[in-house]
Amino acid sequence: MSDFRTEIGPVGLWMGDMKESGSETPSAPVGGLGRTGRGRAAGESDEIERVDVVAASDPADLPAVEVRGLVKCFGETRAVDGIDLTIRRGTVYGLLGPNGAGKTTTIRVLATLLRPDGGTARVLGHDVVREAAAVRAKVSLTGQFASVDEDLTGRENLVLIARLQGLSWRDARARATELLEAFELAEAARRRVKTYSGGMRRRLDIAASLVVTPELLFLDEPTTGLDPRSRNQVWDIVRAIAAEGTTVLLTTQYLEEADKLAERLAVIDNGRVIAEGTSSDLKRSVGGSTLRVRIRSADRTAEAESLLRELLGPDVHNGSEPAVLTASVADDRLVGTALSALARAGIGVAEVTLGQPSLDEVFFALTGRAAEERDASGEVDA
To answer: What are phi and psi of 72, to 5 degrees?
Structure first.
C-alpha cells in the first residue's frame, strides 16, 4: 500500500482513528471543494475541539509562508542554499526552476518531511521544527508521483483517506462522491486506479489532498508528464482551489504553467532564489525587446545563431523548437540589420516576431540555460 503519510495530504494524516464499519464519528458538514473540516478523533475532548475553532478563526494577518536563510544539505551538496521567501495567504505562488534546482527539497522542508540545517521557516504562523505537528494539521502535499493505491478503486482510495482523517463512514462516502464529481472522475469511481490514465491519477491524487480542506496546499510539479488536455484540467483545478481561499505553493519547470497560474513566483537555481516577483516584473527586469526568428531550414540554425550573435550580442539562443532562435534586442533598429544579414547569407526566414520577453527568455537570461533542461544525472529535482 502507498505511503499515505508522506505522499498524500494532509501530511498529518494520522490525526483520527479508523473505526469499525458502522461506527460514526462527528465531522463537519460536507460542502464544496473547500468546506469539509476534520472529524473529531476518538477520545478527543470538546475543549480541544473548541481550541481548534478559535485558532482557525484568528485574523489572517501572518504570511502563509515566511522563510529566512533556509539551508538544507545532503552530504557536501547544499540543495537549498539560503532561500528567503514570503508568501501571502490566499494566493498561488510558484517556485520555478530546472531539475536539481532545490524546489522539491524546499517543499519537503516546509511540509516538515525534512529538517532544515539552517535558517528559519514558518508555515501558517508555526515554526516547521518546533511546531511541526501544528503545521501538518493545516497543510496538504501532493508529490511528484501518484501515490494512490492502484489496487483500490478511486472511490475506495478517497473513502480510506477520509476515514484516516477522522470522518464518519457516512461523511467519508459523501465527501468521496463530492470530490469524484468535482474532479470529473465519477464515471470511473468504481474502477481500479491501475486502469486510470496519467491525467486521471493526477486528478485523484489532488482530490485526495482535499478530503479535508487544507489552509495551504503544496503541489510538487503537478503536471509533469501529462498531455496538454490533462495539464489544462489540472490548471483549472488549481484555480478553483485558490478561488475558495486555500493558499497554493506549486513547483514547476514549465514556464507556461508558472505564467498562467502564479500571482508571484520565485526563480530558483542551484538552491538559491535568483529572482522574485510577478511574471510581468520578471519580464521587465530583462529589459529591451525579444526577437524570435524561425529559420526556414533547420540545418542552418547554428549558422544563423552565429551571425545573430555577431550583430546583436551574446544573448541569442536556440529555444525549445529546433529551428527557432530568440535574441535580446536593446535597440529595435538592429532588427532590420539582422534580417538583412540573414538574407545576404542566403538563410531563409519563415517567421519573425518582436515583443516582450517570455518567461523562457527571462529564465535563460538569468541562468544561461532553458528552464526545462535536466541536470547531468537526469534525476528528479532535489
So the answer is: -140, 125
